[in-house]
């Protein structure tokens, strides 16, 4: 039996590489003669660079950049030939700041702009930005400032609060820096920048914005967009990463689903040809998984090749009908199998145990 194991990270417990290894280990205990290929995946969020480095090799370029509140943090840019892969979460990730210390009204995406500038100055002619897992909601103003954009009144790199006083914005210096470079926005988000389905309303609460702040922050971004380019604010993906998608689109970036970028880079379609089964997974498998996340992306590729796809997840929060709508034949929960306490205390062992049990059904 030929099995491809292609999970995302299990957020807070296992990296994608660790999850793939745990699933393979458990499967082989039940079906020792199975031929298993491990393909760690990402949708552009945390782990994006690690997954690509494991698959593609290349060189990691160490840099020090600003976190959302100006504190220096280490980051790494992956260089593969002329392409640089940049992971937004390394500079401005939500995980960098404890919940009680988050101040999303002043958090800035400047650190991501510093990473992109470093990649360009290192000689990259193509920069692919994984946009998931960010803790900022500034419309990408800080990113643009780091690349040379200037403003009259207010400030671009002090969070959404400072956007209120802007009178004009000059993007020309940033455009001049990035014009020789092909920019790619790798994102699982297709939300616009503003409104009921925009960056603030959809993702602001998880970044710490209160109900009252949601209205204020969206108004600040609206003012920013009216000064710069209101039409671009309506584009799919403009709301990615609290608006870093908007900033990158302003600079001419092409948007692609993050899982598609990774699948192409790790040659997932070629790996799936001739497989008997593909196993994917993530921390929480729910209906939002359809929004460009790894299980849905893997399942779509598998369906095109007539390979059945199942999912192993920390938690499964969809029913059978929704599961099949996502292209998943069956999904299994670690928490349901071993309990929440053990699932978090021994994530690799618990996931292996689940994989071993599932192999009784699917490993024949």
From TrEMBL:
Annotated GO biological process: organic acid phosphorylation
Domain of life of the source: Bacteria
GO molecular function annotation: glycerate kinase activity
Keywords: Kinase, Membrane, Transferase, Transmembrane, Transmembrane helix
Entries under InterPro entries matching the protein: Glyc_kinase_flavodox-like_fold, Glycerate_kinase, Glycerate_kinase_RE-like, Glycerate_kinase_sf
Bilayer-spanning residue ranges: 296-318
Pfam families: Gly_kinase (PF02595)
Protein name, per record: Glycerate kinase
């Amino acid at each position: 039996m030929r099995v491809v194991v292609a999970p995302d990270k299990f957020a807070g417990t296992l990296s994608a590489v660790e999850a793939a290894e745990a699933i393979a280990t458990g499967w082989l205990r039940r079906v020792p003669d199975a031929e298993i290929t491990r393909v760690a995946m990402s949708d552009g969020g945390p782990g994006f660079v690690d997954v690509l480095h494991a698959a593609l090799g290349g060189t990691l370029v160490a840099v020090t950049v600003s976190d959302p509140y100006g504190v220096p943090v280490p980051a790494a840019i992956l260089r593969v030939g002329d392409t640089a892969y940049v992971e937004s979460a390394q500079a401005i990730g939500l995980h960098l700041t404890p919940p009680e210390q988050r101040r999303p009204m002043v958090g800035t995406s400047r650190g991501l702009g510093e990473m992109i500038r470093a990649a360009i100055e290192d000689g990259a002619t193509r920069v692919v930005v994984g946009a998931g897992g960010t803790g900022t909601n500034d419309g990408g103003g800080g990113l643009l400032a780091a690349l040379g954009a200037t403003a009259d009144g207010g400030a671009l790199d002090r969070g959404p609060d400072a956007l209120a006083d802007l009178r004009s914005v000059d993007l020309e210096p940033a455009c001049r820096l990035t014009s020789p470079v092909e920019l790619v926005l790798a994102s699982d988000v297709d939300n616009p920048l503003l409104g009921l389905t925009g960056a603030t309303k959809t993702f602001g609460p998880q970044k710490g914005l209160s109900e009252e702040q949601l209205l204020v922050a969206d108004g600040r971004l609206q003012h920013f967009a009216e000064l710069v380019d209101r039409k671009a604010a309506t584009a799919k993906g403009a709301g990615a990463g609290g608006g870093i998608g908007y900033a990158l689109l302003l600079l001419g970036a092409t948007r692609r689903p993050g899982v598609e970028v990774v699948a192409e880079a790790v040659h997932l379609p070629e790996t799936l040809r001739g497989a008997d089964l593909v196993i994917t997974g993530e921390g929480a498998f729910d209906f939002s998984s359809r929004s460009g996340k790894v299980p849905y992306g893997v399942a779509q590729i598998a369906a095109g090749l007539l390979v059945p796809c199942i999912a192993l997840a920390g938690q499964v929060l969809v029913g059978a009908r929704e599961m099949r709508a996502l292209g998943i034949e069956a999904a299994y929960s670690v928490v349901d199998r071993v309990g929440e306490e053990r699932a978090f205390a021994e994530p690799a062992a618990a996931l292996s145990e689940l994989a071993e049990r599932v192999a009784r059904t699917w490993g024949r």
